[in-house]
Amino acid sequence: MLIRTAILMAFAILIVIVIPARGQTADNDCPPHGAECDGIEVTETRTFEMYTPHCTFEAEYTRKNCNDGSFQLVLIGITAIDGCSGFSSLEIDGLSLNTFIEIAQLAIIQQLVQTGEPWAGQMADCDATATVVQFYSANCWVWQKCSYDITGATPVCDTPPQPQVPPTNKIDIWKWHDCGRTCCKRTYEVCRNPLPVEGNGPQTIEIRGMTVQKISDCTLKDNFQKACSDGC
């Protein structure tokens, strides 16, 4: 499925209001040794502004122009600055769902192309695709089921109807346990559309494919007999 992004951005200086965004940024060991590509690494901190909805944020990341023609981005940290309340953030147990960071990852790619970075200038037009690899860390967790014996007495509720006696005298309760962190690799197949003939419209980046994989073990996996789930 073709996913289109046309995110307009500009630089801004505003009072910083920190919103934690650790769920999908990279830990110190992400990517692990051997997963990164050969190439010159550049660390940058930039301010980005998006307009739908309006959100200004600062991102720190490293980027590489790899010898195989692909591009790598490692997201170190994101700080929301202004107007980012339109993005939803949900933290439940080990699973982190953060629309803000998801959109920010795409915004960084878009900004680097629009500003004419040397590596982004080599990104393919849409008769072909280029590969952009992005690394980030995610939470891991384990769900454990515990079974309890309960009495067979009929419970009494505040209002009718009253429930029947439970058909079994056991109840299962599931509990979440922290299983540490893991490193994830997200690979985009992207291409760049040229500017419109009029020259005034935004340049767009098409994402024609995306894959996500876990590339390191969950750091606390040895604490549990069950396999850890991950947020990659």
Q: Gist?
A:
This protein is mainly β. Helix content is 7%, strand content 44%.
Topology:
Blueprint: E1 3-5, E2 41-51, E3 54-65, E4 71-82, E5 89-92, E6 95-98, H1 99-114, E7 130-149, E8 170-192, E9 205-214, E10 229-230
Parallel strand pairs: 4-7
Antiparallel strand pairs: 1-9, 2-3, 3-4, 5-6, 7-8, 7-10, 8-9
- Shape descriptor reads elongated
Structural class: mainly beta
Let me know the average pLDDT: 75
How would you characterize the largest beta sheet? 8 strands, mixed
**SSE string, helix = H, strand = E?**
EEEEEEHEEEE
- The poorly predicted ranges are 1-23
What is the count of helical runs?
1
Strand element count: 10
Percentage of residues assigned to helices: under 10%
Beta-strand percentage? Answer: 35-45%
From the alpha-carbon coordinates, what is the Rg to the nearest angstrom? Answer: 23 Å
Distance between the termini: 20 Å
